[in-house]
Amino acid sequence: MQPGDAPYDGFAETFAREAAISAYNAHYDRPTVLGLLGDVNGLDILDAGCGPGLYLSELAARGARPVGIDQSADMARLARERLGSLAEVCQHDLAQPLAWADDASFDVVLLTLVLHYLPDRIRTLRELARVLRPSGQIVVSTSHPTADWLVSGGSYFTSGYVEESWSNGMPHRYWHQPLQAWLDEFTAAGLTLDRLVEHQPVPSMARHHPVEHEKLTHQPGFLAIRLRKRQPGI
């Protein structure tokens, strides 16, 4: 596994505190993704880009056997502290092969709010598909292309990097592209679309984050996609 500096190093604890209760994480992405996963009891799940372990905690509580990896040493440390013996957590850069993982060793691969940071998304998706069992699924969540377009302006059909600075001072650089381009990359990686879900805020967001709730009930923020390995001959 590959150690090294990562964008979240130095910001991990601040992010962990915010993500535990924030509108976009606690009341938007986690409920949507966990709903798309369904029953995970007894499943081997790789959380690729596990952050501080918030999804890992949910998966372990639901009876899964989760493994978490993250490029950030700080994030991996926080996840290990959160999960203890409930999950294996290691530092690993998704730009590198998963040399430590056998073929077909996971029922589910989770890739939440990570894909838009990766330098070679197709190569990483192919590697994640390698460790996925034939009947398994990869669940991806990412920024909705329309939301990216509303932020960056210009043409919806333009692809490229967006650079921002978050309120905590962390630089934020991510890839945006139209929906068709995302789907083309999934196909190029040998995956097929099983289901696409456009996030909706859960009712608790209205109580804790009324401004964000009002916004996200009228325009998209994220989307989640369930992918399967393309079977031979299909």
Structure, briefly:
With 234 residues, the chain is of the alpha/beta class. The chain is 36% helix and 26% strand.
Largest sheet: 7 strands, mixed
Total strand count, please? Answer: 9
Low-confidence region ranges: none
Helix content: 25-40%
Number of helices: 9
Mean of residue pLDDT values = 93
Ends apart, CA distance between termini: 34 Å
Helix and strand element order:
HHEHEHEEHEHEEHEHHE
What fraction of residues sit in β-strands?
25-35%
Going across the major beta sheet, what is the strand order? 3-2-1-4-5-9-8
Shape: globular
- Report the C-alpha radius of gyration, rounded: 17 Å
Helix vs. strand class: alpha/beta
Description:
The protein is an alpha/beta fold and 234 residues long. It has helices at residues 12-21, 23-37, 54-61, 73-83, 121-130, 145-152, 179-188, 203-208, 210-216; strands at residues 44-48, 65-70, 88-91, 106-112, 132-143, 160-165, 171-176, 191-198, 222-229. The protein has a seven-stranded mixed sheet, sandwiched between helices. A two-stranded antiparallel ribbon has the order 6-7. Strand 4, helix 5 (121-130) and strand 5 form a beta-alpha-beta unit. The model has no long low-confidence stretch (mean pLDDT 93).
